[in-house]
Automatic annotation (TrEMBL):
Coiled coil: none annotated. Transmembrane segments: none annotated. It comes from Caenorhabditis tropicalis. This is L-aminoadipate-semialdehyde dehydrogenase-phosphopantetheinyl transferase. One of its GO terms (cellular component) is cytosol. It catalyses: apo-[ACP] + CoA = holo-[ACP] + adenosine 3',5'-bisphosphate + H(+); apo-[ACP] + acetyl-CoA = acetyl-[ACP] + adenosine 3',5'-bisphosphate + H(+). PANTHER family: L-AMINOADIPATE-SEMIALDEHYDE DEHYDROGENASE-PHOSPHOPANTETHEINYL TRANSFERASE (PTHR12215:SF23), PHOSPHOPANTETHEINE TRANSFERASE (PTHR12215). Its EC number is 2.7.8.7. Keywords: Transferase. It comes from the Eukaryota. Residues 5-49 form the 4'-phosphopantetheinyl transferase N-terminal domain. Residues 53-170 form the 4'-phosphopantetheinyl transferase domain. SUPFAM superfamilies: 4'-phosphopantetheinyl transferase. Signal peptide: none annotated.
């Protein structure tokens, strides 16, 4: 971020809207958008030339509190449209049913985070239509999915569905139309997969934002003196 915007690392500032959507506060007056999701073994980050971007990552868990896939899907039925329920229930195996459930969940989270609305009561008003000709599996990059809200096509969005690895699926939602200054307008069909970033890479060129006396050694030692709790 600091490199792209020509700012000092310690001067970059992020804030959140009233509904919790993160945004770049400093430098100001930028159209750069970002979003973060964490679940399973990963934290996923997505950005866009537009402020409206959302991401969600989900681990394809097999543990469902001893419920079958159908029982689990039925317990979450209020969050799905009739067509989504039909698609989930029609899958031939337990694993495929749950993969389809997590696929829809990622898509719904991604669009709600892109708009900044957050979780809403009537998730079933968002009706995602997937193309069965697309092979949704690790290595895939699916962009043909569309969404209807209350029966009306919402054509302003594009969805990028991928897998972080064999156990984690992800979805990014962003606006189709980019600002003129956005370099990605040159190749709108470019496939941008997730890259795994190490913690060391995140700390490269990092600067202290909130300095503490004695480099916080005293605070750390006081913390370590506290008795450990048994969970």
């Amino acid at each position: 971020m600091a490199e792209d915007h020509g700012e000092q690392w310690k001067l970059i500032k992020f804030e959140r809207t009233e509904r919790g959507k993160p945004f770049l506060a400093i430098p100001a007056d930028t159209k750069f958008g970002l979003n973060v999701s964490h679940q399973g073994d990963y934290v996923a980050f997505a950005s866009s030339c537009s402020s409206k971007v959302g991401v969600d990552v989900m681990r394809l868990d097999t543990e469902r509190n001893h419920k079958t896939a159908d029982e689990y899907i039925n317990s979450m039925a209020k969050s799905a449209s009739p067509e989504e329920l039909r698609m989930m229930r029609s899958q031939p195996t337990e694993a495929m049913k749950m993969t389809m459930f997590y696929r829809y969940w990622c898509l719904k989270e991604a669009i709600l985070k892109a708009t900044g609305v957050g979780i809403v009561a009537d998730l079933n008003s968002l009706d995602f239509r997937v193309n069965l000709q697309d092979r949704y599996r690790p290595g895939a990059f699916v962009t043909t999915t569309t969404v209807l809200e209350d029966g009306r096509l919402q054509d302003q969005w594009i969805f990028e569905e991928t897998f972080v690895d064999g156990k984690h699926s992800a979805a990014v939602c962003k606006e189709k139309k980019f600002p003129r200054e956005c370099v990605f307008r040159q190749d709108p069909e470019a496939k941008i997969f997730f890259s795994k970033i190490t913690f060391d890479a995140l700390l490269e060129n990092a600067e202290i934002v909130n300095p503490m006396p004695n480099d916080a050694v005293d605070v750390f030692e006081d913390f370590m003196k506290k008795p450990r709790k048994t969970f």
